[in-house]
Amino acid sequence: MNRRQRYEARQRRRSGLIATASTLIVLAAIYLLIPLAPGWERVKASFFNWDVFARTFPTLLEAFLLDIAIFLWSAPIIAVLGLLIALCRAVQSPALFPLRIFGALYVDIFRGIPVVLVIYLVGFGVPGLGLPRPWNSPYIWGTVALVLTYSPYVAEILRSGIESIHQSQRAAAISLGLSERDTMRYVILPQAIRRVVPANMNIFIALQKDVALLSFIGPVEILRQAGIFKSLLANFTPYVAAAVIFLAITIPATRYADYLMARERNARG
Amino acid sequence: MFKTLSTVLLLTGALALPTAAFAQNECAAGKTIEEGMLTIATGNPAYYPWVIDDAPEAGKGFEAAVAYAVAERMGFANDAVKWVRTSFDEAIQPGAKNFDFNLQQYSITEEREKVVDFSNPYYSAAMAVLVRKPTMEAGASADLASLKKLKWGAVATTTALPVVMRIIEPESDPLLYDDTANVAEAMKAGQIDAGIFDLPTALYLSAVVLDDGVVLGQFAGDDAQKLDQFGLLMEDGSALKECVDGAIDSLTEDGTLAKIEAEWMQEATGVPVIK
After folding, report:
1. What ipTM was assigned to the predicted interfaces of this complex?
2. B62-66, long-range: CB within 8 Å, 24+ apart, which pairs?
3. What is the pLDDT of residues A125-142, one digit of tens each?
4. Disulfide-capable partner of A88 in A103, A189, A255, B78 (CB 3.0 to 4.6 Å)?
5. What CATH number matches the domain at A49-268, 1.10.3720.10, 3.30.70.1400, 3.40.50.20, 1.20.5.420?
6. Superfamily name with CATH number, domain B124-218
7. B114 and A136: CB-CB below 8 Å?
8. Is A46 in contact with B93 (Cβ distance < 8 A)?
9. Which chain B residue has the Cα nearest residue A128?
């Protein structure tokens, strides 16, 4: 080890120590100071009641399976529709200009309305037209609402991916004799999609949480189940339990997205 | 000095009132969140027939009238009553409350009693089943065997859900909503066949909100599970509880409560009892 490396190792060790110490101080302050707040005992009884937690956790976990199911059938539809919308916005032929207008309008409208409103409007409104069972199910129309709200985000991310592919690639593909369609299919999209995977991961993590909003139109998933317990037991601990269950899924997913993003950054240098 | 004077005035004024009112008069002194004022909370919005036109200040509607009657027995004139609005959650969250008592059809339950205080009940509501005509025509009737087959909906924050699960035991899982308006909307959309509400709310929905609503039946009488008792909700350990209970007891004993009920609640005769 030369002198410079020794110096750098010392610096690294030093900053590591400082980071550990400051983290410990902050944690200790939180641990010691919060219980000093005058309302702590009541907050503890209302939000961190172990008995209530243990009693409600299994049922909440079961209700969470419904969230996962809704997520699993919504996500592929969102991905496909998002891609279609992105392609609409990326067409270059003048004859297909109406498609571009449609894509832009779709994105403007459904990205601009809060999810809950779309869920209410579609979830109650469309079945209200008089559809027979089972076609008026809140699961179907709730899913439609999620797809409508989330596909514009995915579309915009994909579009940014498509636009990030350098124009020279398109030129090269055309000079090789590929049609516009094949250029998109074999040259642009494979690179574009790979580039925006991490950004899309974030969208799907957000979707995973917003699935719970379907509870507004009837389904008893984890948020609603926690609400039922809250109202029966007059205690907010079930919400904390639900948050813990969500975190168990979203934290690993977020870390994975971070990892993908870092890898993408390194690959691009 | 000023305080003594106003106390004297208050006492002289009180002497002119019937003795029942006088007896209650001092129990609330210094115990309300705003001296000399009684702050009452209700829902946002407050629904018919509990509060008419979402305007509790007018004293119209069953709960609005009860609130003013209780206030009067506690020694507060009508203009010493202040209204605030809260959600269910705001009422049970830990920390200081912005009301002296809260009334929005809170059912008294043992579990809730651990976190907040309830007054003695001011109303006992039978649970009732609301359906639409097409469901009736499809053969639904007021017996449990028929009710089991229906698709149920209820308001999630009420005690209706335990009634559905324990007594009706439906074949498919019920759907749950945030408030009565949403349950009615789901009935209109045909997503659920039947909703369960307290009887006055069911009568209101069938008469006003749904074009073709029918109150299919009500659960009878004494079984505590089937009967919802509403109480005024107060902060846990509220110093006012004794005073509020005294007011409600005296309103019950002298028949005032029954009179208010007769004035604001629809006659519920003719609603069949579910067997």
Report:
1. 0.73
2. B62/B123, B62/B200, B62/B260, B62/B261, B62/B264, B62/B265, B63/B103, B63/B104, B63/B105, B65/B260, B65/B263, B65/B264, B66/B103, B66/B122, B66/B123, B66/B251, B66/B257, B66/B260
3. 888 888 888 888 899 999
4. A103
5. 1.10.3720.10
6. Periplasmic binding protein-like II (3.40.190.10)
7. no
8. yes
9. B189
